[in-house]
Here is the input.
Amino acid sequence: MVEEKVRTRCPRCGTVIPWEGNTYRPFCSLKCKLIDLGKWIDEEYRLIGEDSPPRKEEAGEGRKKGS
Here is the structure.
């Protein structure tokens, strides 16, 4: 019996890649993985959920009086 290897697409660039033995899965490379991480850090991606109250810094409460 021939064993089928699981293949998937990189969510960043769409390249077809093997799932097993892929160090960067679900991405095809370190480059795609870091590009995706950068988008999360820059808040280009967002999760849908309830609105949270503004942080102190955003509401202006974090500033010192008289400055």
About this structure: The mean pLDDT is 84. The helical segments are 30-41, 56-59.
